[in-house]
TrEMBL record:
It is found in: Secreted, Extracellular space, Apoplast. GO terms for biological process: phenylpropanoid biosynthetic process. Belongs to the plant dirigent protein family. GO terms for cellular component: apoplast. This is Dirigent protein. It comes from Oldenlandia corymbosa var. corymbosa. Residues 1-22 form the signal peptide. Homodimer.
Length: 209
């Protein structure tokens, strides 16, 4: 009887291990090459998320800083044309302007270039670096244009790493909160496909609110 119980426990542990999700420690070229051999037969997983990018200027240190601007930028305050800002801000499931203690699950790191002479239009090239939770260590890379006056904007997800390898999709993004002194918060709804290293990972089909 004892042997039977031990055998059942071993089977349960093996089953849980096979269905568990964990980012592989080995991210070497050899490991990636091995993964690519199975890629043609892999099925893409779908992920939907609703997150908030907190560009809070009153944080210590601030979430973003200006690093460059054109000689004419100060003469165009309506557009800030030529201004370049670098951001390293927290990503949460609730806006920090309403929930200051919201748990930080990722950070957004990249830059924004004010590239329009007719309106506030920002070229965004940023990485979402997941720092907590089940996708810790994975990243998403995005590239697109944010025009606050437009309302919802369509930002492209052009790649990813870790669990989000070969990610492709979109982010519907809009300014949720803005204040000249405090900063701004972007509401971002992700919808993308990716090919995780572990083929046993279950897809996440429900939108996280």
């Amino acid at each position: 009887m004892a042997k039977m119980v031990a055998l059942l426990l071993a089977i349960v542990c093996m089953t849980m291990a096979s269905f568990g999700r964990a980012l592989p420690d080995d991210q070497s070229p050899e490991s990636v090459e091995k993964w690519f051999k199975h890629f043609p037969n892999a099925k893409p997983q779908n992920m939907k998320l609703r997150l908030y990018l907190n560009n809070i200027l009153t944080m210590v240190p601030p979430a973003s800083v200006a690093v460059a601007k054109a000689n004419t930028t100060d003469s165009t305050p309506d557009t800030n044309f030529g201004l370049v800002r670098v951001i390293d801000g927290p990503i949460t499931e609730q806006p920090m302007t309403e929930h200051p203690d919201a748990k930080v699950i990722a950070r957004v790191q990249g830059l924004g270039v004010f590239s329009s002479q007719t309106e506030v239009g920002i070229l965004e090239a940023i990485n979402f670096v997941f720092t907590d939770g089940e996708f810790k260590g994975s990243t998403l890379t995005t590239f697109g244009r944010l025009a606050p006056a437009q309302g919802w904007n369509d930002i492209s997800i052009v790649g990813g790493s870790g669990d989000f390898r070969m990610a492709q999709g979109t982010i519907a993004s809009r300014i949720y909160f803005i204040d000249p002194t405090i900063g701004d918060v972007q509401e971002m709804v992700f919808d993308f496909y990716y090919y995780p290293p572990s083929i046993s990972m279950e897809p996440k089909d429900e939108l996280r609110k």
